[in-house]
Write a structure and sequence with these properties.
The strands form three sheets. Strands 3-4-5-2-1-6-7-10-11 form a nine-stranded mixed beta sheet, sandwiched between helices. The chain contains 17 helices and 17 strands. A hairpin with a 2-residue loop joins β3 (about 55-65) and β4 (about 70-80). With about 475 residues, it is of the alpha/beta class. The protein binds adenosine-5'-diphosphate (ADP) and alpha-D-glucopyranose. The site of alpha-D-glucopyranose (GLC) has 14 residues, from α1.
Length: about 475
């Protein structure tokens, strides 16, 4: 099939979270199954890293969105290591900003332009998509554009759209006065009328209403988004579309995240020899300027520091737990100042036990996965989550809240039966988190002798799991076939 994949971020060009990883790995896995996949994303300033070459495809396309005139050009480069073309929408006025997402007052325009540009690119290169695969609110207008402004073009006569919801917590809700600047002013009657009259335009909801099929990134989250607790106001709309809503667990890029062959870590290791992991622990602690002791467990965190991620629970739980257990904690993350300040103050209070690195660093993320003994993800909600899967693969048992994709990938360790790959707490409250952490520390025990053997069993259970994308592609193909005419 011909698949046009549209996303607001994609690794290695630009990434803020898991969407970036998925937008690179899923197209690769689809292409490996013989599909002709093309990706479209914005050319943010950060995309121009040294050593990257881009070929000009065409320039000076003019879009008139409402009264606003936007000019963009298009460049092309393959996903590194593949021949899959990525088309970059270059419009410095909109995309050259310090961060990928902004709170600037033209945020609606930035991603309306991405959505328009994706279909304009297909026209220019005469690519006839069977599927346009949109991702999250930033591309939520694409399905409606296909049904309205681009419906005249026979190129798209057999095109169907899929919208994947990676996170319903971000919907792209704007004041209705921006309607004209979506370029869909003439299609105003297609927007959700009650919301429009109440003064809002919701990009994600628009996608939910008009995509031919909807997917989200784990089976549990697909059920959760249909409930008031997790639907963030869209639950009723999703229930109405239940027959075309599918939960497909994300995979991980098993080449990029492989402890046996990871250029970002110094010491390779595997389930049959953990020596390298211990050495990575030493490197990690040295890097973070914390003392090393084989028996002292190191808890790792790599995360966007956002409300979703559940760190509120840590505020009262972690200080006591650290004081009592002597465990060490290594945190890499940035985001809301409230959480940054919390971890910074924790590091000041426990200078020999806690290190906090407020940055975005891929190499350090890999080193933390490899060098920690356990990994903490207390997410309030988690559509899928990739870090718990990286942790499993790196023999770093995750401690997680039972929600979304965490519930689908992590199961509680049972030493008697020899089953389970991590530690899971049911209730999102302080007792829950304390329970999860205590379970992990108790299982770690002395870190030696029989305790060590038990820990190895747990690590191996995780490392045996198969989380590659190859296992997920059939599910996407089924969704594509379900909606594509004549397939
Ligand atoms: P989300 O997409 O909600 O942030 P995921 O677990 O799906 O959560 O994906 C997060 C991705 O972003 C992982 O690849 C993780 O390693 C990466 N990441 C998050 N914060 C950082 C950071 N500060 N430095 C490097 N990588 C990070
Ligand atoms: C979102 C979710 C995360 C998911 C990622 C990729 O950012 O928060 O759970 O893994 O998208 O689908």
């Amino acid at each position: 099939m011909n698949v046009l994949f549209v996303a607001s971020e994609m690794t290695p060009f630009a990434k803020s979270g898991g969407l970036g990883d998925v937008a690179s790995a899923l197209p690769k896995a689809l292409a490996a199954c013989g599909h002709d996949v093309r990706v479209v994303m914005p050319m943010y300033a950060r995309v121009h890293a040294p050593g990257r070459d881009f070929e000009a495809v065409f320039d000076d396309v003019v879009l008139i969105l409402g009264g606003t005139r936007i000019t963009f050009s298009v460049f092309e480069a393959p996903i590194p290591g593949t021949s899959i073309p990525v088309y970059f929408v270059r419009c410095p006025r909109l995309f050259d900003r310090p961060s990928i997402y902004t709170t600037d007052n033209d945020e609606h325009l930035r991603f309306a332009v991405l959505s328009w540009a994706s279909l304009v690119i297909a026209q220019h290169i005469a690519f006839r998509p069977d599927i346009v695969h949109a991702n999250d609110w930033q591309t939520g207008l694409v399905p409606l554009l296909l049904r309205t402004m681009f419906a005249w073009d026979r190129l798209f006569s057999a095109t169907r759209s899929v919208l994947t919801i990676h996170n319903i917590g971000y919907q792209g809700v704007f004041d209705a006065h921006i309607l004209a600047e979506t370029g869909l002013g003439d299609a105003a009657h297609h927007f959700h009328q009650e919301q429009l009259h109440a003064g809002h335009i919701n990009y994600l909801l628009t996608g939910v209403l008009y995509a031919n099929a909807l997917t989200t990134v784990s089976p549990t989250y697909a059920r959760e988004v249909q409930t008031a607790e997790h639907g963030a106001g869209l639950e009723a709309f999703l229930r109405q579309r239940e027959d075309v809503l599918f939960g497909i667990l994300n995979g991980i890029d098993e080449v990029e995240w492989n402890p046996e062959d990871d250029p970002k870590i110094l010491h390779a290791y595997s389930a049959s020899n953990f020596d390298g992991k211990e050495k990575n622990k030493q490197v990690l602690l040295e890097t973070m300027q914390l003392p090393y002791a084989e028996r002292v467990p190191v808890i790792g965190v790599v995360s966007r520091l956002a409300w979703q991620k559940g760190f509120d629970l840590c505020v009262s739980v972690l200080p006591k737990l650290l004081a009592r257990s002597g465990a060490e904690l290594v945190v890499l993350g940035m985001g809301e100042p409230k959480y940054e300040n919390f971890f910074a103050s924790l590091a000041r209070r426990f200078p020999k036990q806690v290190a906090f690195n407020k940055s975005f660093s891929e190499p350090l993320a890999h080193l933390i996965e490899a060098g920690s003994d356990m990994f903490l993800m207390p997410s309030r909600y988690e559509p899928c989550g990739l870090n718990q899967m990286y942790s499993l693969r790196y023999g770093t048992p995750p401690i997680v809240h039972h929600t979304g994709g965490l519930a689908d990938t992590v199961s509680p360790f049972d030493a008697q039966r020899g089953t389970g790959n991590g530690f899971v707490f049911e209730h999102f409250d302080e007792d829950g988190l304390r329970f999860g952490l205590n379970q992990a520390l108790r299982t770690w025990g002395s870190g030696d002798g029989e305790d060590r053997e038990r820990w190895r069993m747990l690590q191996r259970n995780g490392m045996r799991g198969r989380f590659g994308w190859d296992r997920r592609i059939t599910a996407y193909e089924q969704v594509y076939r379900l909606i594509a005419p004549g397939r």
